[in-house]
Design goal:
By secondary structure, the chain is mainly α. The chain has a domain of 57 residues. Helices cover 70% and strands 0% of the residues. The relative contact order is 0.10. The protein binds zinc ion (ZN).
Length: 89
């Protein structure tokens, strides 16, 4: 039975660790490894940053936002240059 997880184990368990899905024993080994391994500390830092950035993205950056802007642009263009050739009546 191995005491310390390998760097590969850390990489595989990283998201579980952040989601508190590891057993207490796994968690202890994980933290022990991080204490001794600069590479995995960096990996975890990067992963945390990535997750934090993803969670910070505003909801409004959805697709319908750009569609709305396109529609707005079309409406604006119509207002500035009304369609010609229909001036009957
Ligand atoms: Zn490592």
């Amino acid at each position: 039975m191995k005491i310390m997880p390998s760097c590969r184990d850390i990489t595989e368990q990283a998201s579980d660790y952040l989601e508190h899905a590891l057993s207490p024993w796994q968690r202890t080994g994980f933290r022990l490894h991080l204490l001794m391994c600069l590479y995995c500390r960096r990996h975890m830092k990067h992963l945390r940053l990535t997750i934090a950035t993803l969670h910070r993205l505003p909801e409004e950056t959805a697709q319908d936002d750009s569609e709305e802007k396109q529609l707005e642009a079309v409406l604006q263009a119509l207002r500035e240059a009304p369609p010609q050739g229909q001036t009957g009546d």
